[in-house]
Amino acid sequence: MIELKDVYKTLDGRKILQGLNLHIREGETYVIIGRSGTGKSVTLKNIIGLMKPDSGEVNIMGQCINNMGKEESYALRQKMGVLFQSGALINWLNVEENVALPLVEHQRHLSKSEVQSIVQHKLELVELEHAGKRMPSELSGGMKKRAGLARAIVGNPKIILYDEPTSGLDPVMSNQINDLIISMQEKLGVTSICVTHDMSSAYRIANRIGMIYEGQIIEEGTADQIKNSQNPIVKQFISGSTVGPLTQ
Ligand SMILES: Nc1ncnc2c1ncn2[C@@H]1O[C@H](COP(=O)(O)OP(=O)(O)OP(=O)(O)O)[C@@H](O)[C@H]1O
Ligand SMILES: [Mg+2]
């Protein structure tokens, strides 16, 4: 479904991705973990085409996106939903208008009332049904995150990319978002990649977890395999220990 082959990316003279390989199967939820600044968001940006790799290949649903034309990449983009790390709401649009954006852009055949009812349903899923008229500046951090999530899923995408979906949320709301991610997979069969620092969320939602380190996936496996990893880098990361190879 999603494949990155030997992807390299240097930014501002710093080697960020250094031969990254990822192979994500249809219908799975794959969680990427790794320290801050290691290139997790950059990896997602290469998948959605916001960034191009210096070398290597990105294949989405069997299509190589490296040299894709505008129309093709636009069509592919419609099948993907993205929750950006910051929420990335547009400040001058209210919550409903933000959530409706992908529909207004990509599904022009829908009537205004159809759009409204879809948006309302997605807002209910993230418990924002009463905040639709609010502007982004009037939302808490967690509400912004949930509005971003509603926008990511509004077009019933085949692929959803989540960048830190639970950061800044209280523990109960975090679990509600985890459950929502699981139900998107179970009910709609979506394929997801989720970047997170929240290991309890990772263990709960992931079919597989991959850890990125020095520009590559250094270990990959189920939650149990990662919990029992003997790799000292993985062990230090998941335990949060201040002593180990990550802090030398
Ligand atoms: N557009 C850009 N131009 C220059 N450098 C960039 C750009 N985007 C990211 N970087 C750099 O690439 C590195 C990886 O960034 P990235 O956002 O992928 O980190 P991350 O793993 O998502 O970290 P975090 O967990 O803090 O979100 C960082 O050093 C960052 O400064
Ligand atoms: Mg990031």
From TrEMBL:
Residues 2-239 form the ABC transporter domain. One of its GO terms (molecular function) is ATP binding. Keywords: ATP-binding, Nucleotide-binding, Transport. SUPFAM superfamilies: P-loop containing nucleoside triphosphate hydrolases (SSF52540). It comes from the Bacteria. Gene3D superfamilies: P-loop containing nucleotide triphosphate hydrolases (3.40.50.300). InterPro entries: AAA+_ATPase, ABC_transporter-like_ATP-bd, ABC_transporter-like_CS, P-loop_NTPase. This is ABC transporter ATP-binding protein. It comes from Uabimicrobium amorphum. The lineage of its organism: Bacteria, Pseudomonadati, Planctomycetota, Candidatus Uabimicrobiia, Candidatus Uabimicrobiales.
